Amino acid sequence: MPTEKTAPTETTTEPKKADGLPFSVTEWWKPQTAALQSLYGEVLTLTETRLRKQADLFHELARAKDFTEALKVQTNFVQEFWADSTRDAARAFSTLRRTSGAEA
What we know:
Layout: H1 30-63, H2 67-100
């Protein structure tokens, strides 16, 4: 009489928890996740603003009557860009510090 072979059954066990830790292993990541989400929201808002300003620049350049007017429009845009970039970077880092709990 042929004997039937059965596949060994797999047993699963729950992962062991680290003894002696006052918190779950993933608890430390929660504040960082919230901070990154707020930073990304801030960066997307700033990106939207920059893209709108670039679109306005192209409209102004298209309406320029001569080279000197186009150069003036471009120069003004570059000056505003650097001022905005400095302010926006400080704002984004402030948001990151605030939401990550780094500010007192």
